[in-house]
Design brief:
Layout lengths: L3 E6 L6 H14 L4 E5 L5 H10 L9 H25 L3 E5 L2 H11 L4 H12 L6 E6 L2 H13 L14 H17 L4 E5 L4 H19 L7
Parallel strand pairs: 1-3, 1-4, 2-3, 4-5
Helix pairs in contact: 1-8, 2-3, 3-5, 4-5, 4-7
């Protein structure tokens, strides 16, 4: 029995986390065994690394160190959680995966993408998602969303990446678009500026097509 692996990617403020939670809730309500994961995090090691990697703090982390720390969290998540769930026939929905390293540390920070691809492949053991949903949004729109949520008390403090200049986020977005164009059979680009329910319905529809194709089974109530 094999499950399905769905990843949500995209620049800051695109609503990945909220859409991932809504997707898993809908799958579970429909009888599918579904599991939500996030990066970094999802394991004891990953959660500890998250507290180092994401908060905006005076701790200096070089671009290469970022890559290795994110990939350490990712390797643990794949081995401890994702592969186990897929082997059990579950639908795994991940809020970010290896493409984030290519987008943020590759396109954003300017590291060699070929070297990054090798590191990511090692960390994941070659695991790739069945479907990658790119929630695309202009960087200035996404950052404004995050700022408004922060002012309203509906979001935590800015993370390390949100403090980068706009040009950094523009490079990240362009990286995502280029990756999506390179693998059109795996990626689907969605407009993250759409109303939440409209976008959720589109995501649910595309994932339903994937589950039918892979013959993922519902579990009896």
């Amino acid at each position: 029995m094999a499950g399905a692996f769905v990843v949500l990617e995209g620049p800051e403020g695109g609503g990945k986390s909220s859409q991932a939670r809504a997707l898993v809730a809908g799958l579970a309500a429909g009888g599918y065994p579904a599991l939500l994961t996030r990066e970094p995090g999802g394991t004891e090691l990953g959660d500890a690394l998250r507290q180092i990697l994401l908060p905006a703090s005076p701790i200096a982390i070089s671009a290469r160190s970022e890559v290795l720390l994110y990939c350490a969290s990712r390797a643990q998540l794949v081995e401890e959680v994702i592969r186990v769930a897929l082997d059990q026939g579950q639908v795994v929905v991940s809020d970010r995966f290896g493409y984030s390293t290519l987008a943020y540390q590759g396109y954003g920070r300017g590291l060699d993408p070929r070297q990054l691809e090798a590191v990511v492949e090692f960390a994941t053991g070659g695991l790739q998602p069945d479907l990658c949903l790119l929630l695309d949004l202009l960087p200035e729109t996404g950052l404004a969303r995050k700022h408004n949520l922060l002012l309203a008390g509906e979001s935590a403090e800015w993370n390390r990446f949100e403090e980068e200049e706009l040009a950094f986020h523009q490079r990240v977005r362009e990286g995502y678009i280029q990756m999506a164009r390179a693998e059109p059979n795996r990626w689907l680009v969605l407009d993250a500026s759409l109303p939440f329910e409209t976008l959720h319905d589109r995501i649910t529809h595309e994932v339903s097509i994937l589950l039918d194709r892979k013959q993922v089974l519902r579990r009896p109530a």
